[in-house]
Amino acid sequence: MEDYLKQIFDERLLIKVPDAEDRTLTTSTKLLEKDKQLRRIHEDLLQRKDEFQVKMQYFEQRRQELEKKECQLKESLIRFEKFFKENDEKKARALKKLSQERSLQKQRVKEIENLTAEMRILEQKRDKLERVVKSYAKYRDFLVAVLKESEDFSEIPELIHRYDALTANLEDLKARERLNNQQYEQLDGDLRRYREVTYDEKLTLTNELVGMRNKLERYQTKIRQKEQTWEHAREAAVNRISELCTIKAATQNMYKIARTYEKYGEEAHADDVTSQLKIIGDFIVDLVEVTKTLSPRIKEK
């Protein structure tokens, strides 16, 4: 519609440049011409408006029909979805039932296979027992022949009982032999362990003896060293005693000289060296004083 109006406007309302012959027309003539053009345009617009309204009515009717069809389609779609959903539910139930039946069928097949396998095992055991019975038949025939030849046994169970008794005695003898062997092995092991322990003790005692000998040698060395030290100490003590005796003798001689003068106290005991030395000291002090007094006089003479 907009394109149509634009086209009408371009065709009828745009002012064209007047040609040379139009320039001679008067202004009133031009106005009349324009007025005619406007009336034609108005009539054309009214006609176009009527046509547009008719088209709009048609479009509205078409829209209503389309909406009605759309509602019908929606209802059909809802019915179809409902049908499809019900169909899916039926299908799911059918599939579930089919799955259960298949599981049950598999279970039954499994049970049949297990029973078949058990039956085969039982048949194998039966065949094996039949073969064992056939293989033992010769022993039964042998026992029957033995009974015919023997006077001690009248029935097969008696013979079997006798055989079991002999077998038990044999097993008892074997058990005793194993016990004796075990005891022998135990005694032999005890003997080896005793020898090992004795050897270890002997080795330990030998090591202890060597250690004690080494310790004795060290003690003897220390004793010799101490004896040498004691000998040196004894010699030093003897020398000291000798010196003390000499000093004591000299002290007694000097004491006797000092005692020639009675002014030096009482007589001291022979073993009282301290008192004697005190008296000797007093005597020497007096002697020094006398010497100091007499020395100037001697020098003058």
TrEMBL record:
InterPro entries linked to this entry: CFAP_domain-containing, DUF4200
GO cellular component: cytoskeleton
UniProt-listed Pfam families: DUF4200 (PF13863)
Coiled coil regions in record: 95-132, 202-236
Signal sequence coordinates: none
Keywords assigned by UniProt, alphabetized: Coiled coil
Domain DUF4200 intervals: 31-148
Name of this protein: Putative filamin-A-interacting protein 1 (FILIP)
